[in-house]
Amino acid sequence: MSQLLVRSVMRRLVSGGTCNRCISSVSAAAAVVFREVHKPSSESVVMMSSQRLRFSGQWWRMMCFTSEPPSKNSTTSSAVRKEDEKLSGDSVEKMEGEDKVALSSYWGVSRPKITKEDGSVWPWNCFMPWETYQADLSIDLSKHHVPKTFLDKVAYWTVKLLRIPTDLFFKKKYGCRAMMLETVAGVPGMVGGMLLHLRSLRKFEQSGGWIKALLEEAENERMHLMTMVELVQPKWYERLLVIAVQGVFFNFYFVLYLLSPKLAHRVVGYLEEEAIHSYTLYLNDIDRGEIENVPAPAIAIDYWRLPKDATLKDVITVIRADEAHHRDVNHFASDIHYQGKKLQEAAAPIGYH
């Protein structure tokens, strides 16, 4: 055992280790040997074997990781590591202080800086300045498609029946009524656009622009909803009602569009006519002073390019005009199907607001 200790010390000294570390290691090893020698013989043999294995493992690790005196190169590499850590920390702090999108700039998908006409930063991610527009308020609001065929009458009376529970539930709460209406109105365009998209992929044919036109309609209706949420904070039971109605209506319209696109578009056309009527009643209550004509939300001002001092009445007016355009688009689509043609045979009214 003493020979083993001597050889170990000599190896440690040759490898360049410090005296203090050698002495401490030797002292610890000697203490282990001393304790084991004074144990009973039967137990001592077993413990000595395990301690020898552990002791040899420790020395093997010490031999593999011998300490070297610090050199100029090691000092330089340490300084480089510290500098790299400092730079990486500074870059993280800089990115955290800026827009969070900068964290994904590695993939090259970060949005460039977009400004308004006055030079201020564009505040919205849900739509861009080139997607905004000024609503066409000259559109005829009194247009009505007179139901003539059997399917037209089915569509017309289906919408009229759907209006009854809506009137009973919301009565003259036009803000909540509009919010519920927009959660439903955003479904048909998405369903129709999705099914036309799948048809185009499945049959290797163009859509005539109708996919984009219907998805534009769905997006426009969603922006109506985002605006109404700023004006009317829905209660918990209204949120539950939205979930239930959307689930039922989505599946209903999905099946209806598969079975009869002309009936589906006609139903939406009559729904838009009812929306025009509801928003007209909303405006009448604002004019009578029964509903406060509050300032327009910022999202509405930027989306419809309204003046800075726009009010609720201005917002409802442009939304009503949008609904009139959607009415025309869906009745037009239904008429195309009634003529025995496909939608792609007629140019889609893209950007028709």
UniProtKB/TrEMBL annotation:
The chain crosses the membrane at residues 240-259. GO terms for molecular function: alternative oxidase activity; metal ion binding; superoxide-generating NADPH oxidase activity; ubiquinol:oxygen oxidoreductase activity. It comes from the Eukaryota. Its EC number is 1.10.3.11. Keywords: Electron transport, Iron, Membrane, Metal-binding, Mitochondrion, Mitochondrion inner membrane, Oxidoreductase, Respiratory chain, Transit peptide, Transmembrane, Transmembrane helix, Transport. Binds 2 iron ions per subunit. Its main location: mitochondrion. GO terms for biological process: alternative respiration. Fe cation 2 binds at residues 221, 272, 323, 326. Residues 69-79 have a biased composition (Polar residues). Its cofactor is Fe cation. Fe cation 1 binds at residues 182, 221, 224, 323. GO terms for cellular component: mitochondrial inner membrane; mitochondrion; respiratory chain complex. Belongs to the alternative oxidase family. This is Ubiquinol oxidase. The gene is LOC102581100.
